[in-house]
Design a protein that fits this description.
This protein has 201 residues and is of the alpha/beta class. The chain is 36% helix and 14% strand. It has a 5-stranded parallel sheet with strand order 2-3-1-4-5, with helices on both faces. It is globular and about 55 Å long.
Length: 201
């Protein structure tokens, strides 16, 4: 018997649809857990401000990444992970970890974790429109999207484009159903490969 799991990442600009996609996948993938980077923001009192007075939320310093790594490690070590035999059981029985966030590929300790990586992209106009429909705490100040959020996204995306491992780019303007189908089918293939690898196929 082997204990093994599939971990994959969903990365996108703010309001790119990663959380919705992750939840839709969790509904269909047995034994699936989600860890969201948004759950690891530091308190507002610890967030730096720039010269324009904008709170610097869209940077790694705003996140407690050590705590996030600890949470991931705890998940990986849980004994409740399924035991999948070498001669029975479907690939879908593997424990699956979805890690979703907006700065996953910019944090080096995560680099070796992924079996599969997805990057949801949406254009500036759509991103700004979606952002305007959301309520944040603290709320966005006037000019915050153009003065901080979008420039930080462009900066981080430039870093991502230098990554050498495979990233699957997804069109975040597609319907929820189309995005789900695209990623789900890709993951089922990857699950089969992982099971075959461990079972010696």
């Amino acid at each position: 018997l082997f204990i093994f799991f599939l971990s994959f990442s969903l990365f996108s600009v703010t309001n790119g649809g990663k959380t919705t996609l992750a939840k839709n996948l969790q509904k269909r993938l047995p034994n699936c857990s989600i860890i969201s980077q948004d759950d690891f923001f530091k308190p507002e009192s610890e967030i730096e401000t720039d010269a324009n007075g904008f709170l610097q939320y869209d940077v790694l310093k705003a996140l407690n990444m050590e705590k996030m790594m600890s949470t991931i490690s705890c998940w990986m070590g849980r004994p409740r992970h399924s035991m999948v035999s070498t001669d029975s059981g479907s690939a879908e029985e593997m424990p699956i970890l979805i890690i979703e966030g907006f700065l996953l590929f910019n944090y080096k300790p995560l680099d070796t974790l992924w079996n599969r990586s997805y990057f949801l992209t949406i254009p500036y106009e759509e991103c700004k429109r979606r952002r305007s429909t959301r309520v944040y705490e603290p709320p966005d100040t006037p000019g915050y999207f153009d003065g901080h959020v979008w420039p930080m996204y462009l900066k981080h995306r430039q870093e991502v484009e230098k990554i050498t491992w495979e990233i699957v780019y997804l069109d975040g303007t597609k319907s929820e159903e189309d995005l789900f189908k695209e990623v789900y089918e890709d993951l089922i293939q990857e699950l089969g490969k992982q099971k075959g690898k461990y079972c010696g196929w």
